[in-house]
Every structure is written in structure tokens, then in C-alpha cells.
Specification:
The chain is mostly beta strands. The protein has strands at about 5, 10-15, 20-25, 35-40, 45-50, 60, 70-75, 80-85, 90-100, 115, 120-125. Strands 2, 4, 5, 6, 9, 10 and 11 form a 7-stranded mixed beta sheet that branches. The chain has a 4-stranded antiparallel beta sheet with strand order 1-3-8-7, with no helix packed on it.
Length: about 120
């Protein structure tokens, strides 16, 4: 069982930055692929970023490449999402995700094993 708790969301002006954190419980954090998804109002939950258990394999959706950075600290059981150059299109609830896959989380939400409760990110133009 893995419990995930996100923090760091909030409101920011377009062009600004936010850093999301996701603290995980459990002793096997380092065995899980971790990632972030987001869901905007009226839209389906979509993949944002993934990081492998070791941190050596990273994947991003095209719309955030060059702006977002995912990282993890296995000693702290925490995964991060640094978000720069934010735009109104990034406004969504962001969810931390864990998958029992060392290579990372799948891009399909229904393949994720554990979810956090979500944190709101609002970008105003």
C-alpha cells in the first residue's frame, strides 16, 4: 500500500513558476515508478510526466517539455514537479501517481496503481 500526499499548488501569474511535491508513505517507494497527471475542468485526466524508480528514465508529454522538470528523492520518499513558464493552459488539478513498474508510470490513467488527492494549480493571464 502506498499513500501519496501532494503539496505546492496555488495561483500564479502566466510566466511564473510553481514546484509541486508528493510525499509517499511506505518502505518500497524506491521500487515504484512515479509520475504526475493533471485534469482540467471538463477534460479527461492526462499524463504529464513520469520518472523511473531509479530516476534515470524520464518522460514528458509534449506540451510541457522544456518547461517542467520531474525529479525524485528516494531517501525522502518524495517526487517533485518543477513547473516554469506557466500558462493558463496549465490550469488543472495535478495528481501524483505511483505504479508498480520500475520504468515509470504508464501514460494511461487506468494503469496507475495509486493516486494522491490532487492539488489545484491556477494560472492567470
Amino acid at each position: 500500500q502506498v499513500q501519496l500526499v501532494e503539496s505546492g499548488g496555488g495561483s500564479v501569474q502566466a510566466g511564473g513558476s510553481l514546484r509541486l511535491s508528493c510525499a509517499a508513505s511506505g518502505r518500497t517507494f524506491s521500487a515504484y515508478g512515479m509520475g504526475w497527471f493533471r485534469q482540467a475542468p471538463g477534460k479527461e485526466r492526462e499524463f504529464v510526466a513520469s520518472i523511473s524508480a531509479s530516476g534515470g528514465l524520464i518522460d514528458y508529454t509534449d506540451s510541457v517539455k522544456g518547461r517542467f522538470t520531474i525529479s525524485r528523492d528516494n531517501a525522502m520518499n518524495t517526487v517533485y514537479l518543477q513547473m516554469n513558464s506557466l500558462s493558463s493552459e496549465d490550469t488543472a488539478v495535478y495528481y501524483c501517481a505511483a505504479a508498480a513498474m520500475r520504468l515509470g508510470v504508464p501514460r494511461l490513467p487506468n494503469a496507475v496503481n495509486y493516486w494522491g488527492q490532487g492539488t489545484q494549480v491556477t494560472v492567470s493571464s
